[in-house]
Amino acid sequence: xxxxxxxxxxxxxxxxxxxxxxxxSVVGQSANMQSPDHIYVNxxxxxxxxxxxxMAIKDGLIVAVGSNDDIKNVADVGTQVTxxxxxxxxxxxxxxxxxxxxxxxxMLSCRFPQGAKAPQIVAAVKACVAKAKPGEWILGGSWVxxxxxxxEQHKRLLDKxxxxxxxxxxxxxxxxxxxxxxxxxxxxxxxxxxxxxxGVIDRDSKGEPIGILREIASRDIEKFIPPxxxxxQEAAIKAATDExxxxxxxxxxxxxxxxxxxxxxxxFASSGKLKQHARGCIVWGPNxxxxxxxxxxxxxxxVGRFQLDCVKMFLDGVPLEGRTAAxxxxxxxxxxxxxxxxxxNDKGMLLIETDKLNAAVAEFDRQGINVKFHAAGxxxxxxxADAIAFARKANGAIGPRHDIAHNTFIDPVDVKRGxxxxxxxxxxxxxxxxxxxxxxxIAEAVGPERMKRxxxxxxxxxxxxxxxxxxxxxxxxxxxPWVAIETLISRQVPGATGEPINAGQRISRQQALDVLTRxxxxxxxxxxxxxxxxxxxxxxxxVIDRNPLTAPLGEI
Length: 556
Hints:
Helix 3 crosses helix 8 (230-246) and helix 8 packs across helix 9. This protein has an eight-stranded parallel β-sheet with strand order 10-17-18-19-20-21-22-23. A six-stranded mixed β-sheet has the order 11-12-13-14-16-15, with helices on both faces. A five-stranded mixed β-sheet has the order 1-24-9-4-5, with no helix packed on it. The protein is α/β, with parallel strands linked by helices and 556 residues long.
C-alpha cells in the first residue's frame, strides 16, 4: 500500500494532470471568446461528440474543442501552445469511495504486503517495535484472513515480538483488527467480556479472546489509541491525495469522516493544499464513536474544495472469513479446517435496526444531506434500498441522490430499484480480480452459485440507474483507477489473463470511462462543470500516453 511504481508500469502512463476546477469540452467555442491562455494541439481529445485534435483553455475553463486548424486560428502571440504529439486527453477521474485519512496513515505506518503470511507480518511488527518508544502503539495492516493456517492467527504471535507495546493491525477490509495481549489489557477485554451488539470477539475453545475483533468490537480497541496531532493528520491527508492525483483522480468521496481527522481536513482544505474536489461523508450509527456530533457542525468544516454534505452508514460487514455481511440466504457450510470459526451468524449481521434506519435516512433526506450506505450483502443492499424508498415516500420525489456502496451481491429483484427509486449504485471493481479477497475469502464464504452474481456491473448499468465506482482504498493496496477500468471491461486479472470472474457482467470501454468520469461528476452534482470535455466546463483533464478506447486491453 502506498507503493509508487513508475507511471508506465502503474497506470496508462499518466504524464500530465492540469487543473482549473473540473473537466469539460464541447465542439465549437464559447460565445465572445477572447484569445485563449493555452492551446493543446496534435492530440486525441475524447469528447461526447467523438475524438478531436485540439483544445483551448482560458482562465481555467475550456473554451473550444475542435481540429488543429480551428484551435490554432483562435490563438494569438500570447497563447501558450503545447504539442501533444499524439497523446490522449480525457476528463479527470472520479473515485466515489476512498478512506483518505486511513490511506495516508497506512502509507506512514507499520506496513506489510496485503496477503502476507504470518512470519512476514511478525517480522514487520518486530522491526516497527525496534523503532518505537516503550509503550508506544504499533499500528498498521493489512492482513488477509485466507493467508493464515487454521488456528495460526493469534495474539501470541504478536506477543512474542511486542510484549510491551500494544499492537493493532487492520485487516484488508478495515472491518476487523488483530491485536496483542497488551492491547486487550489496555481495553479491558477479557474472557468475561461479552460481544457488543453488532460486533464479534473471536475466542478459543475455552472462551479466551484470541486477539481478533470484528465490526463494532474493534471500536473497543480503537478508542484507546492516542489521538493524532493535526499536523500528522494533514501529513496523512496530503500523502493520500497526492498519490491519487498522480493517478489522474480529480475528485473523490471520502467515505469515513470521523472526529479523529476532521481538524486535519479543515486545516488542509482551508490552506488551499487540497487540489481535488472532495466530498466527505460523516460516519453515523453504532460504530461512529462521537463522529455524529460533526453532522450539525458540517458547514463549519466545509472549506475550500472540501464539501461535507454526506453521511455514511454501515449496514453490515463483509463477506469474508468473518461472514459479517448480511445475506438473504445462509453462508456456505464451512470446511472441517475452519469449522470452529462459527459465530452464529449464518446469514451475517445487519448493524442498524430497520425502523431506526428508516427514520434517520428520512430525516437526513429532508435536510438535503446525502447518505452513503455500506452494503456488501444482498440483505443489506435491500435494507438500504428500502430506507431510500421510505425517505422518498416521506419527503416526496425531490431530494439528494443517495448511494449504496460496494454491492458485492445484489438480489436480482432489487437491480432495477436504482432507477425507479432512484439512487446511485456504487461498485468496487478494484476488489474483484483474483486477490485473496475474491478468489478465496468471498468464494469460500458464499459458495460457487452466488459467485455467479458477484458485482453485477452490467445489470445495474442496463437498469438505467446512475452507476459510479469506488476503490475503497486502503482496503485495496492502491487507488489505481486503471485497474478498475481494465477489470470492468475484462473481469480478469490485470493484463487481461486468466479465467474471468462473472464474465457476463463485462462492460464496454466507453461505459467504463463514463462510470469513472461523467457518472461520478453527475453524482457529485458537478456535471455542469466536469466529467466531460466540453466548452464552458472547467479544465480538469489528464493527458495520457495511449488511447484507452483503442489500446490493447491488457495494457490499460
